[in-house]
Design goal:
By secondary structure, the chain is α+β, with helices and mostly antiparallel strands. The chain has 3 helices and 6 strands, in the order ββββαββαα. β2 and β3 form a beta hairpin. The longest helix is centred in the C-terminal third of the chain and has 26 residues.
């Protein structure tokens, strides 16, 4: 899991041979958190846009952080929930042609 400490990065997916920017990350944003919970291939690529500082947390460091500050787990779940809600809305728009 990674936390952007400074700078900017973009989340990119490949769709039909072309790169599509999914979202932009700035200081405080988290990515790669799904790897903490499941061992699956990554679903996107993150690329820095200029000088960017990123903090790396492995599963052990994450669990230690949650033990020391349980609100960390809440913030991660909140971010994941917001992404699911956004993706659900986007999927709905795609299915209805809007």
């Amino acid at each position: 899991m990674y936390v952007v400490q400074g700078g900017r990065a973009v989340v990119i997916r490949e769709e039909n041979g072309a790169e599509v920017v999914v979202r932009e990350l700035t200081a405080g944003d988290v990515f790669g958190e799904m790897a903490i919970f499941e061992r699956q291939p990554r679903s996107a690529t993150v690329r820095a846009k200029g000088p960017t500082r990123v903090l790396t947390l492995d599963k052990r460091a994450f669990l230690r952080g949650v033990h020391e500050d349980p609100s960390l787990a809440y913030r991660i779940l909140q971010a994941m929930s917001q992404r699911v809600r956004s993706l659900t809305g986007e999927l709905s728009r795609l299915k209805t042609g809007g």
